[in-house]
Protein backbone atom coordinates (compact mmCIF):
# COMPACT_ATOMS: atom_id res chain seq x y z
CA UNK A 1 0.00 0.00 0.00
CA UNK A 2 1.57 3.22 -1.14
CA UNK A 3 -0.05 5.18 1.74
CA UNK A 4 1.49 2.88 4.33
CA UNK A 5 4.72 4.88 4.52
CA UNK A 6 3.03 8.23 5.01
CA UNK A 7 3.00 9.37 8.63
CA UNK A 8 -0.25 11.27 8.11
CA UNK A 9 -2.23 8.19 7.10
CA UNK A 10 -4.58 7.02 9.81
CA UNK A 11 -5.81 3.46 10.06
CA UNK A 12 -9.40 4.68 9.63
CA UNK A 13 -8.49 6.03 6.15
CA UNK A 14 -7.93 2.51 4.82
CA UNK A 15 -10.86 0.41 3.72
CA UNK A 16 -11.69 -2.76 5.60
CA UNK A 17 -9.89 -5.03 3.14
CA UNK A 18 -6.68 -2.98 3.34
CA UNK A 19 -6.82 -2.87 7.15
CA UNK A 20 -7.35 -6.60 7.37
CA UNK A 21 -4.41 -7.31 5.07
CA UNK A 22 -2.05 -4.94 6.91
CA UNK A 23 -2.97 -6.00 10.43
CA UNK A 24 -3.67 -9.68 9.91
CA UNK A 25 -0.27 -10.91 10.99
CA UNK A 26 0.07 -8.70 14.08
CA UNK A 27 -1.05 -9.39 17.63
CA UNK A 28 -3.10 -6.33 18.49
CA UNK A 29 -3.16 -5.28 22.13
CA UNK A 30 -5.20 -2.42 23.53
CA UNK A 31 -4.43 -1.01 26.96
CA UNK A 32 -7.44 0.65 28.58
CA UNK A 33 -7.94 2.62 31.74
CA UNK A 34 -11.02 3.93 33.53
CA UNK A 35 -11.67 7.36 31.95
CA UNK A 36 -12.07 8.99 35.35
CA UNK A 37 -8.66 7.63 36.40
CA UNK A 38 -7.20 9.02 33.18
CA UNK A 39 -8.61 12.44 34.07
CA UNK A 40 -7.13 12.28 37.56
CA UNK A 41 -3.71 11.22 36.24
CA UNK A 42 -3.74 13.99 33.64
CA UNK A 43 -4.66 16.59 36.24
CA UNK A 44 -2.00 15.35 38.69
CA UNK A 45 0.66 15.41 35.97
CA UNK A 46 -0.09 19.09 35.47
CA UNK A 47 -1.35 18.75 31.93
CA UNK A 48 -4.22 21.07 32.71
CA UNK A 49 -3.57 24.65 33.77
CA UNK A 50 -6.48 24.70 36.18
CA UNK A 51 -5.97 25.31 39.89
CA UNK A 52 -8.64 22.78 40.91
CA UNK A 53 -9.82 19.42 39.65
CA UNK A 54 -13.33 20.78 39.16
CA UNK A 55 -12.13 23.60 36.91
CA UNK A 56 -9.91 21.15 35.00
CA UNK A 57 -12.93 18.91 34.38
CA UNK A 58 -14.85 21.93 33.15
CA UNK A 59 -12.01 22.68 30.68
CA UNK A 60 -12.21 19.08 29.44
CA UNK A 61 -15.98 19.31 29.01
CA UNK A 62 -15.74 22.70 27.29
CA UNK A 63 -13.04 21.46 24.89
CA UNK A 64 -15.36 18.72 23.68
CA UNK A 65 -14.63 15.65 21.65
CA UNK A 66 -12.80 17.30 18.74
CA UNK A 67 -10.60 19.88 20.46
CA UNK A 68 -9.54 17.83 23.47
CA UNK A 69 -6.18 16.32 24.29
CA UNK A 70 -5.50 12.64 23.66
CA UNK A 71 -4.80 12.44 27.40
CA UNK A 72 -8.51 12.71 28.17
CA UNK A 73 -10.36 12.03 24.93
CA UNK A 74 -12.66 9.01 25.07
CA UNK A 75 -10.76 5.82 24.24
CA UNK A 76 -13.19 4.78 21.52
CA UNK A 77 -12.32 7.96 19.60
CA UNK A 78 -8.61 7.13 19.84
CA UNK A 79 -8.36 3.36 19.39
CA UNK A 80 -11.40 2.72 17.19
CA UNK A 81 -12.42 -0.68 18.60
CA UNK A 82 -15.24 -0.86 16.06
CA UNK A 83 -12.77 -0.57 13.17
CA UNK A 84 -10.11 -2.90 14.51
CA UNK A 85 -10.45 -6.25 16.18
CA UNK A 86 -7.98 -6.36 19.05
CA UNK A 87 -6.59 -9.71 20.14
CA UNK A 88 -6.25 -8.58 23.75
CA UNK A 89 -7.66 -5.79 25.85
CA UNK A 90 -5.52 -5.17 28.93
CA UNK A 91 -7.08 -3.22 31.78
CA UNK A 92 -5.02 -0.91 33.95
CA UNK A 93 -5.15 -2.32 37.46
CA UNK A 94 -4.70 -5.89 36.25
CA UNK A 95 -1.42 -5.36 34.39
CA UNK A 96 0.70 -7.96 36.18
CA UNK A 97 -1.83 -10.73 35.65
CA UNK A 98 -2.68 -9.83 32.06
CA UNK A 99 0.86 -9.01 30.89
CA UNK A 100 2.07 -12.32 32.29
CA UNK A 101 -0.58 -14.09 30.23
CA UNK A 102 0.42 -12.17 27.08
CA UNK A 103 4.10 -12.96 27.53
CA UNK A 104 3.38 -16.67 28.04
CA UNK A 105 1.20 -16.67 24.90
CA UNK A 106 4.13 -15.13 23.00
CA UNK A 107 6.41 -17.90 24.31
CA UNK A 108 8.43 -15.60 26.55
CA UNK A 109 9.30 -16.19 30.22
CA UNK A 110 6.74 -13.98 31.93
CA UNK A 111 8.28 -13.78 35.38
CA UNK A 112 11.68 -12.44 34.38
CA UNK A 113 10.45 -9.73 32.02
CA UNK A 114 7.71 -8.14 34.11
CA UNK A 115 8.47 -5.15 36.28
CA UNK A 116 7.26 -5.29 39.86
CA UNK A 117 3.62 -4.29 39.64
CA UNK A 118 1.45 -3.89 42.70
CA UNK A 119 -1.96 -3.80 41.09
CA UNK A 120 -3.93 -4.05 44.32
CA UNK A 121 -2.17 -1.00 45.79
CA UNK A 122 -2.76 0.93 42.58
CA UNK A 123 -6.45 0.02 42.64
CA UNK A 124 -6.81 1.05 46.28
CA UNK A 125 -5.01 4.37 45.68
CA UNK A 126 -7.15 5.22 42.65
CA UNK A 127 -10.31 4.27 44.50
CA UNK A 128 -9.40 6.71 47.28
CA UNK A 129 -8.34 9.43 44.81
CA UNK A 130 -11.52 8.93 42.79
CA UNK A 131 -13.68 9.39 45.88
CA UNK A 132 -11.86 12.62 46.77
CA UNK A 133 -11.88 14.08 43.26
CA UNK A 134 -15.44 12.99 42.46
CA UNK A 135 -16.71 14.77 45.57
CA UNK A 136 -15.30 18.07 44.19
CA UNK A 137 -17.52 17.91 41.12
CA UNK A 138 -20.99 19.37 40.78
CA UNK A 139 -23.92 17.08 39.94
CA UNK A 140 -24.03 18.64 36.47
CA UNK A 141 -20.32 17.96 35.85
CA UNK A 142 -20.80 14.34 36.95
CA UNK A 143 -23.68 13.92 34.49
CA UNK A 144 -21.74 15.62 31.70
CA UNK A 145 -18.67 13.44 32.29
CA UNK A 146 -20.77 10.28 32.25
CA UNK A 147 -22.26 11.44 28.95
CA UNK A 148 -18.85 12.46 27.53
CA UNK A 149 -17.41 9.00 28.26
CA UNK A 150 -20.61 7.03 27.60
CA UNK A 151 -19.10 5.04 24.69
CA UNK A 152 -16.02 4.07 26.71
CA UNK A 153 -18.26 2.95 29.55
CA UNK A 154 -20.34 0.90 27.11
CA UNK A 155 -17.37 -0.61 25.24
CA UNK A 156 -15.17 -1.62 28.18
CA UNK A 157 -15.93 -3.25 31.55
CA UNK A 158 -15.40 -0.23 33.83
CA UNK A 159 -18.15 -1.40 36.18
CA UNK A 160 -16.55 0.15 39.26
CA UNK A 161 -16.00 3.54 37.60
CA UNK A 162 -17.48 6.51 39.39
CA UNK A 163 -18.80 7.60 35.99
CA UNK A 164 -20.89 4.42 35.76
CA UNK A 165 -22.89 5.28 38.86
From TrEMBL:
Swiss-Prot/TrEMBL keywords: Carbohydrate metabolism, Glycoprotein, Golgi apparatus, Membrane, Signal-anchor, Transferase, Transmembrane, Transmembrane helix
Pfam entry (one): Sulfotransfer_2
Single GO molecular function: sulfotransferase activity
Broad enzyme group: transferase
Name of this protein: Carbohydrate sulfotransferase
E.C. numbers: 2.8.2.-
Subcellular location per the Swiss-Prot or TrEMBL entry: Golgi apparatus membrane
One example of a Gene Ontology biological process annotation: carbohydrate biosynthetic process
Family membership: Belongs to the sulfotransferase 2 family.
Cellular component GO terms held in the UniProt record: Golgi membrane
Origin organism lineage: Eukaryota, Metazoa, Chordata, Craniata, Vertebrata
Topology term for the membrane: Single-pass type II membrane protein
Origin superkingdom: Eukaryota
Broad class of the protein's primary localization: Golgi
Amino acid sequence: YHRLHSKETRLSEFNQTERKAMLGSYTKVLFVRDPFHRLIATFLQGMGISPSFSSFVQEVLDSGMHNGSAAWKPLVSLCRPCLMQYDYVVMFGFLRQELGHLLRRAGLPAGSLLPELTDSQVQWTYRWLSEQMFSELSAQQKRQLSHFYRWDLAAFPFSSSFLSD
